[in-house]
Write a structure and sequence with these properties.
Elements (H helix, E strand, L loop, with lengths): L4 H5 L8 E12 L3 E7 L5 E7 L1 E4 L1 H5 L5 E4 L12 E11 L6 H5 L5 E5 L4 E5 L3 E3 L11 E8 L4 E3 L2 E7 L5 E7 L3 H5 L6 E13 L2 E7 L3 E7 L7 E5 L5 E5 H5 L1
Parallel strand pairs: 3-7, 9-10, 13-15
Antiparallel strand pairs: 1-2, 1-6, 2-3, 4-5, 6-7, 6-8, 10-12, 10-14, 11-12, 12-13, 14-15, 14-16, 17-18
Length: 251
């Protein structure tokens, strides 16, 4: 269902008939446009951008005032981290030579998808796989699992973030998006267990990131003590899972 990196690399730059499918990992909103960062099947990222159109308020026109706002025509109802979107009839446009989009967006591609008035967006559904260990997590899929907080949540870019571990003392960085985060999870602390009903992962260098919506998180109301030093499951290019000690990483 999700686009593969091979699919994305084969898209001819300049086509108006490109199709793609990915998991939303980040939404970058500006006054003039919205750029959405997606994850493909193998974990690499790609970008789709929609420029905002000027919309005049009917009431403002009637009373002779220039009330207007910038609005999205296509993506408006689909912007939520974790949504799986299929984009149809989008333009593949190379990044401007003065703008290093590959570095800025963290994508291996030299282009982004531009959403036009002819583009269509469809929200797709994906199954959820239940796992009991971090080492079984893979990019490009959704999982259900339990994890344990090693410290209270902290606010990072409007998300709640914390280091979590599994029962095998493996480490991950948990990022939670949603509303009323402090009210729902602000009182939780070290050794509190969480159940994640639907989450996806990313690899940032050798760090495992777990991303989840607050609506998909349940506090288990129990304490679990993790033994020993947490170690990080690392996804190698060979797709083999190895363990790197945090002590080794600090050296």
């Amino acid at each position: 269902m999700l686009s593969s990196l091979e699919d994305l690399l084969s898209v001819p730059r300049g086509t108006l008939l490109a199709n793609c499918c990915g998991i939303i990992t980040k939404i970058m909103d500006t006054p003039k446009k919205v750029s959405v960062v997606f994850m493909c099947a193998s974990g690499e990222q790609f970008v789709a951008t929609e420029f905002k159109a000027t919309v005049f308020s009917p009431l403002g026109v009637q009373i002779g005032t220039a009330q207007k706002k910038q609005s999205l025509a296509v993506l408006q109802d689909f912007l939520c981290v974790g949504n799986v979107l299929k984009l149809v009839c989008v333009k593949a446009q190379r990044f401007n030579s003065k703008f290093d989009g590959k570095v800025f967006f963290g994508t291996p591609l030299d282009y982004e998808f531009i959403i036009t008035k002819n583009s269509k967006v469809f929200k797709e559904t994906c199954g959820v796989t239940k796992v009991d260990k971090f080492v079984r997590l893979e990019a490009g899929r959704f999982f259900a699992l339990k994890c344990v907080l090693t410290a209270p949540f902290t606010l990072v870019d409007s998300m709640f973030a914390a280091v979590v571990g599994d029962l095998d003392a493996k480490r991950a960085d948990l990022f939670m998006s949603g509303d009323c985060l402090s009210e729902k999870f602000g009182s939780l602390g070290k050794n509190d267990q969480l159940e994640l009903k639907r989450c996806f992962i990313r690899f940032e260098d050798v760090a495992l990131q777990i991303h989840v919506l607050s609506s998909d998180v349940v506090a288990c109301n129990c304490k679990v003590v993790l033994d020993g030093c947490l170690t990080t499951p690392v996804k190698r290019k060979s797709d083999e899972m190895t363990l790197v000690s945090l002590k080794t990483q600090k050296k």
